[in-house]
Amino acid sequence: MKYDIIGDIHGHGTKLENLLIKMGYKLTSKGYSHPEHTAIFVGDFVDKGVELKEHKKVLDIVMAMVANGNALAVMGNHEFNAIAFHTEVDGKPLRKHSSKNVEQHEAFLNEFPVGSQEAQEVIAFFKSLPLFIELNDFRVVHACWDDKQVEFIKKVLPDNRVTSDFMIQASTKDTPEYLAIETLLKGVEIELPNGLTFNDSYGNTRSELRVNWWDTKAKSLQELSRQPDLDVSHIDIDLKANIPFYPEPSPTCFIGHYWLRGEPKKLSDNVICVDYSVAGGGDLVAYQFESPTKGSFTSW
Predict the structure, then answer these.
(1) Tens of pLDDT along 161-184?
(2) How far apart are CA 116 and CA 109, in angstroms?
C-alpha cells in the first residue's frame, strides 16, 4: 500500500479536492478513493481565513474518506481546541469563548454554529481521531513525536482517542495531560528566563520559545529557535536535557503545524513536514510515501 500524507488544510476545500484529483483520487459514492493509495491527514482541517467558507467542503471530503477506509487522520491542535470550545463542563466551555478564541475559530463557526446538529457531528468526528499513528514504516503526529509523551498517552488512553475526563485534564494547565497535548499537537517549547517575551503571529505575548526538536545537529538554542528574529544567543541551556530530540534511527515521522515556506523538503533524514502555509497563501502539500527510502512531494 502506498500512502499520501496530506498537510494542514484549514478550510481550503477546493485546494484539497484539486490535490486529490492531481494524485489520482476519483470521486465515488463512498467519497474520494484511489485503487492503490491511502490518504493520511495530519490534522488542522479547520480555522483560519475568516472570509473563506469551505470548511463544510473540507469536512465532507475528509469525513467520507475516513468513514469508508480511503483515508486515515490524526488530530491537530485546532481540532482539540474545537472540541474544548464546543464542550461544556458545569455550564462553562472548556475553551473560553473569549474574543480572541472566537476570532481564531470564526471561520469554522461561520458554517457550524455552536450547538447546531452539524457542529455536533463534526465535533464527534474530531473526538474519534487518534492523537498519533504508528505503521510499520513510519509515524504520523500533528506537531511533535516525543517518546515520553507518546508512552504516557498509551497508558492513559489505550484507544489513543480523547475521552471526556481526559479533555478536562488536558484543558487544565500544569497537568500531565495538558503537557502531553501541548507537546504532541503544538510542539516543544522552552520557558524563556528573566522575563523575556515576544509576540506570536496572533499578536499574543509569549514567554516560551518553540524549537526545532528534529534538529539533532544544532549546538545552541539560537539555532533551534523558531523565532529567528529573537536574540536568545546569550541563553545557555543543556539542549539534550531540555529537548526531546527525535533519534535518527527512529522511523520516519510525518508532521504538519509549522507553516513552512518555499520548496518542500525533508527537515531531517527521518522527519518530514507537510504544512506549507496553505492558509497563508502557500500550497497544500502532500508527501507520496512508497517506502522508507522512496517518496516525493506534490502540491496544489
Answers:
(1) 999 999 999 999 999 999 999 999
(2) 10
